[in-house]
Design goal:
Elements lengths: L1 H8 L18 H9 L20 E8 L2 H4 L7 E9 L9 H27 L1
Parallel strand pairs: 1-2
Length: 123
């Protein structure tokens, strides 16, 4: 969700998303709640972070709660490392309505925090 939101906020940015333990597919509820705000992530797929470790980056942003601790060492040049943590909505337990509500809450939190990140870049 963060990749789709950041790309919408800054279309000129080259944005990639990867994880240390990526799922086998994008969660269907993530696709659904992103579609609700006009962002199509249905063509995205989870990727292993190892594919990006030797590349140069302006920013490496970790977003999951434990990602900062488990993030591997990037061998390429990384100008800025940030941690902007979010709850994993897939870990939430509840009814279907409660779970989709959690996906929406996390989506909105991601958008809010990334908007603040972009605003700081513009200052």
């Amino acid at each position: 969700m963060a990749q789709g939101i950041l790309k919408q906020l800054q279309p000129s940015f080259e944005v990639h998303s990867a994880g240390v333990r990526p799922a086998s597919e994008i969660h269907p509820l993530a696709v659904q709640v992103m579609h609700e705000i006009g962002i199509d992530i249905s063509g995205h797929y989870p990727k292993q972070v190892d594919h990006y470790l030797n590349e140069s980056w302006d920013y490496v942003i970790t977003v999951c709660g434990g990602a900062r601790e488990t993030c591997p060492i990037f061998n390429g040049e990384v100008k800025h490392k940030l941690h902007i943590g979010f709850d994993d909505p897939d870990a939430f337990v509840g009814t279907q309505e409660e779970i989709i509500s959690e996906f929406r809450r996390v989506r909105d939190e991601i958008r809010e925090k990334l908007q603040k990140f972009i605003q700081k870049l513009d200052e």
